[in-house]
Each structure stands twice: as structure tokens, then as C-alpha cells.
Amino acid sequence: MADLEELREAILNGDARRADSLTREAIAQGVEPLALINQSMVPAMDEAGRRFECEEYFVPELLLAARAMKAALEPLRPLLAATGARAAGKVVIGTVKGDLHDIGKNLVASLLEGGGFEVIDLGADVSPQKFIDAVTNSGANIVALSALLTVTMPSMRNTIEALKQAGLRDRVKVMVGGAPVTQQFADQIGADGYSENAPSAVALARRFAGSAA
Amino acid sequence: MRYQLISCEVLFREMCDAVARSPHQVDVVFLSKGLHDLGGKAMRKELQQKIDAVKAGQHDAVLMGYALCGNGLDGLVAREVPIVAPRAHDCIALLMGSRSKHAEFFEANPGTYFRSTGWLERGKSGHQLSMGADLSGTNLDELIEAYGADNGRYLYEEFTRYRANYQQLVYIESGLEPDGRFEEAARDEAAEKGWAFRKISGSLDLFRKLIHGEWPEEEFLLVPPGHRIAASYDELVIRAERDAP
Hints:
The structure holds two protein chains of two kinds.
Chain A: H1 4-12, H2 16-28, H3 33-53, H4 59-73, H5 77-82, E1 90-95, H6 103-114, E2 118-121, H7 128-138, E3 142-146, H8 154-165, E4 173-177, H9 183-188, E5 193-194, H10 198-212
Parallel strand pairs in A: 1-2, 1-3, 3-4, 4-5
Chain B: E1 2-8, H1 12-21, E2 25-31, H2 34-38, H3 40-52, E3 61-65, E4 77-78, E5 83-86, H4 91-96, H5 99-108, E6 112-115, H6 117-122, H7 140-147, H8 149-160, E7 168-173, H9 181-193, E8 196-201, H10 205-212, E9 220-223, E10 227-231, E11 238-242
Parallel strand pairs in B: 1-2, 1-3, 3-5, 6-7, 7-8
Antiparallel strand pairs in B: 4-10, 5-9, 10-11
């Protein structure tokens, strides 16, 4: 029997190669893809998030865990596609106009992918129109906006306004984050959610995906 | 008048110059640039402690040697002594001499990384503890040693990806430099990262005004006792709000 605990450990330790080979072994032994995801991968990422929140893990450890998670997911993709399993949700993510900071945004994108979401990453300095185009073309149900500067935070408001004017606001949940962003600001600009750090952004997206389904 | 200045060490030389020339008696405390990397909440907590240690009867005002700094000043409360804070989003505006100059520059030159004497000699952070951390000191060998060859290389790529977003490094010259060493260090850093180098003249105006007690409403916020600083997300950057009990 494949060792699900060992896979969990490999992801948690950021050991991408080991995570990949353990997943392949498990598949060869006939372990259900969803069992692997639910019993090893999701718990591993949840634990990585918990360690980050109590400052046992920092950004590097979190990035490495997300990388190992993606490596473990890769061999499962064809199997999941064959069973008709869909992504947890589709997220359009980007750093808002005027802001070039993308480390936090990249981390959230990685963790979302690790969490089973399909992620369309628009990069940094993304105009409201680009968000609108991406939502229109992809049919995404979640939009994630990042800003690291107080001077560019108003771009978040502009992006939400633009989504409204394009008639897309009701089709998507908008989540915002970034070092200077607060819950209060999120409420002020009419975002659906705010998260303080990358792991809780994934939890928030899961809640949105659940409520949209 | 007697003021207490609470300042980020990144502004050390500029503040010291203004303090030395001030008509007022100014006590000074410099805090680690690392506070900036910890994010708004942790920064605010530390700053509030320093503010609370300033007592009425001893000092007439607390001067903040900070801009809004990632909302690190949002929510700070003036209890017994008024607080004076520059209306600016970050210290680049302080070093340039006005937030409109900074805004114009920002608009015309996206993709600019800034350096000043303080950022060069005190600005490097040792560890990537948070998302707001300065990653300019990222070192491949150190990452490989800490995380192994494969993961170390991966982290290095992740932590240096931001470089592609920038085109130039701008050194803001204060005029207080002893010689060309700072400009040279900035030039070297630009070359190492593959960015163009440019030098601009900064201004000491805002430092002088802050420390000399010239606080025009347009440039400085006066927070009376019982009020707190709030980010306003408009032209004036910050406003004072009554601190609800």
C-alpha cells in the first residue's frame, strides 16, 4: 500500500522529486487520485499554511511546498481529466495597475494551483481592461487582486468599478490582498473578500468556489 | 520647543542634518529598517509603543520620520502628545522633497527601483521573512546552502523574477554624501541587476520642515491628542480621525 503519510511529508518538506515519484508509485498501486489529493496533498498544504501562520514556515518553505504539491499533481492530471473531475474553480489573478510587485501574488497563484484551482496569472501592472478581457475569455469565477503600495490601492477600486461597468461583477467573486490591504479597505471598495496571507487566500477561494457551485 | 523624532533608520543622514540645524531641541530615536519588512500591523505596534513612551510636559510633539509606509502608520494614536506626520506614501517622496514630484516621476517612469544613502547602507535585509521584504540581497549560494541545489535554484529564480519588472535604478542624491561612494554602489547594483542607472537630485526640504516645526497643512498632518492617523486613499494620503474609545 502506498504511503500517504510519506507523500504528505514530502510535500511539506518541499521535496518535489520525492512527491512526484511517490504519486507515481501510488497510481501504479491503484490508489484513487481523489484519495491522494484529499488524504495527502490537501492536508500537506493546510499544514504548510498553519506553519506559516505561526511563523514556523516562511515564504521560502511555502513556495517549496507549493512546488512539491504541483509536482505531485502533475501525474494525476490525466487521470483526473479522464474521470471528468473539474478544477476547484477558475481564478484570474494579477497585481493591479501601477504596481510592479509580484512575489506575494506569485505565491498566492502557486498555492491556488496547488489547491486544485485553474489559475490565469496576468502578471503585474495589470489594467482593469485586461482583467475584464481575461474574465470574459476564460469564464473565471474568481478575480484576485494584489497591491503592495498604498499609492496603487485605489487601482483595486477602479478594477472593481470597471468589472461592474462591464456587467461582469455578478459573475465573479473578487478577493483582494497584499501587505498594506486591510479588511476595512476591502469592505470600502466592495470586494467580496480579503485575506491576510497566501494560505488563507486559498481557503477564501475555496469558500467562494463552494458558494458558486 | 522640544520634539521627539521617531524615524526609520533609512533616513538617518537626512534627519541628522536637519536635527543639527534645528532651532528646536529634538530628541531622536531611530528604528530598524526591518520594521518595514514586517508589514503594517507589526510596524504599527512597535511605533505605537514608542509614541506612548513620549510624555506630555516633556515633549511638545512627536515627529514621525516615516511616510504611510505600507499602512504602517494607519491607526497610530496620539494619546497625550500631538503627532506630526508627513503626507506621503513612502520615503521616496520624502527624499524627493514632495509627493507631487514623486507622483510625477512614478507616472513617467514605471519600473524604477530607488536607492539613497540610507537604503544603501542600512536597507538590506538579511532574510526573506515576508512578502514585503527587500529581496535585493538575494544570494544564490546562500539559498543553495540552506535549501539544497535544486530548491535553492528554484527559490533564486522566484526571488529574482521581479528584476524583469524594473528597467532602471535611480539614485537620489541628497547632497550630504561625503564622496562618490554611494553613487558608485548604486551604479554597481544597477549593473549587477541589468538595469539602467540614473542619478537625480533629491531635496532636504521635507526633512527641514518636519524638524524645524514648519508644518503646512498641505504637506503635514497634525494629529491632536485623542485622534489617530488613518489612510485616506486620496490626494492628502492621510487624515486624523477621533480615536473611538
